[in-house]
Amino acid sequence: MTELAASRDGYGTALLSMSDDSKLVVLEADLGKSTKSCWFREKFPERTISCGIGEQNMMLVAAGLASSGFKPFASTFAIFTERAFEQVRNGICRPNLPVHICGSHGGTHTGTDGSSAQSIEDLAIYRSLPNMVVMHPSDDISTEILTSKLLDLKSPSYTRTARNKTPRIYTKGDSRIEIGKGVQLRDGSDVAIIACGVMVSKSLEAAELLSQKGIEAAVVDMHTIKPLDEELVKRLAAECKLIVTVEDHSVIGGLGGAVAEYLSENIPTRLRRVGVRDRFGESGQAEEMLELLNISTNDIINSVLEIKGMV
Amino acid sequence: MKIFVKFLQERIKGFTVKGEVFLMVLSRLNGLDDDDLVIELNEIARKCRVEIIKMVYRAQAGHPGGSLSEIDLLTALYSTQLRAKPDEPNWIDRDRFILSKGHASPGMYAILAEMGFIQHSDLESYRVLGGICQGHVDMKFTPGVDFSAGSLGMGLSFGIGCAIASKFDKSDRECYVMLGDGEIQEGAVWEAMMAAKHHELDNLNVILDCNRIQNDDFVESQMRMFNIADKWLSFGWNVKEIDGHNMYEIIEGMRWLKSNKDAPSVLIANTIKGKGVSYMENNPKFHGAAPNEEQYEIALKELGE
Description:
The complex is a heterodimer.
Chain A: E1 4-5, H1 7-17, E2 24-28, H2 32-35, H3 38-43, E3 48-50, H4 55-67, E4 71-77, H5 78-81, H6 85-93, E5 100-104, H7 122-127, E6 133-135, H8 140-149, E7 157-160, E8 166-167, E9 183-186, E10 191-195, H9 199-212, E11 217-221, E12 224-226, H10 230-240, E13 242-250, H11 255-266, E14 270-276, H12 286-292, H13 297-307
Chain B: H1 3-12, H2 21-26, H3 34-59, H4 64-80, E1 96-99, H5 105-115, H6 155-168, E2 175-180, H7 187-198, E3 204-210, H8 219-222, H9 228-234, E4 238-243, H10 247-259, E5 265-270, H11 293-302
Parallel strand pairs in B: 1-2, 2-3, 3-5, 4-5
Helix pairs in contact in B: 3-4, 3-5, 3-11, 4-5, 4-10, 6-7
């Protein structure tokens, strides 16, 4: 039986695991219980800074701390980090201050609040900022490992986590997980599926179903959107000839956008992007939302069949 | 009268590190009184005003109005208050100064040159490709600049981070942030005002350059602010209003900022945009415009060059 876990929990456990570093400080904007920074606050209230419902202020307080040698980790919902976009752009990325932002509840696979809380553009906007590292891990374990590695990063980062529990991909301490390195989870040479976040488990599921139809798909967890693991994309393009990207995010500017940009400039390859097609979501259960927005397991399968000319 | 001089001499007791900026001024004041200090500071400010005009004229771009309104305040801050070392600009225990109204950079560059953080010849690189004096102040380019500003309404939040860091480090370093009165129309400033009081940051000090003019026109016509002092008071800050061009009041104001140990403090300085150059004073046109050749000559003459 596959274990289920939410990637946001990995952020909470990572903060605790890094607590020995006296320069670590945690910032919250009234959503610590949701992003799981609350676990750190419980144990280390003196190193947890409440910024109230004020994300713009929070980002720059973090920048000020970073400029004084501290290692700030600031979290809120993915959608609300966007409210402080210009603060992040001008006050964090431009001076290249190592502030680490975590946006939880990213994408449409979230609660039933509806489109106001569904960030489908966060990966795109942060990817466009110089100096910024952008990640979207697939489970709690990889989130914990990647977040812990941020402690030594000298540049700012944005990590999107997810609210809901999805199948756990990794086992504790997996040594393959490095910032900027995709992880090949399944071998196959008929098509390569490159996914991130909650769509990684969906892609693995799709690959098993495709196997029953005689199609062997490679599946990659591309948890780091920027810098993109170009070597891996290049190898997959050479080996599989066909690539499908999968993300709970707009097809514009996210993982699909990054892969498309790389391929078209360097190794033109047939590509399908499974993602949100330039529209907003609405209220509904997470799985219903994937169906509505055509990013479900079936949509991944259909995209593969389509790119292989089988439908 | 030796109130200020004595205060400053008291402040430097126990400081063992040479090269801090206000020592340079004080070293010239031994045996002198407050009037001499004020004369000295006014002369520094006058020289800075000349440099401001030269920078903006050379670049044929930039923001003279707000630089001229802030320069008396910057002169007193750097000369009598700020613990910083020109030869070690990244000294971790320096007081931080954040020019949040980062477009008023000529004023900042002029005082940094006067205090020895940068060379006077560096001022020629203002707005020039490859130069260290960027159009808006930038911590990545200029020694002595603690924050990359230029987008309004960001410096106070950054200053909060610096002030909290100082507390975490159990340091006595202070954080000074200069805001403009147009700038505080940005909503994020009010988030920061709340947060500074919530965290009881008594080591955070704001100097508000109220020159009454913003980019398009007078502040009054763009967004009425009503009673600014009342607004800060209601957020729980210590508030004091001064004439931002009266050096006695400015020094006293700086002393007041330093002495407050219960809450964040704001020194509201009523200033004149373009102060010191007749045709620039109270003229919205010179918020962000350079003088032509004829105007340049007039400005230098009026500034005693």
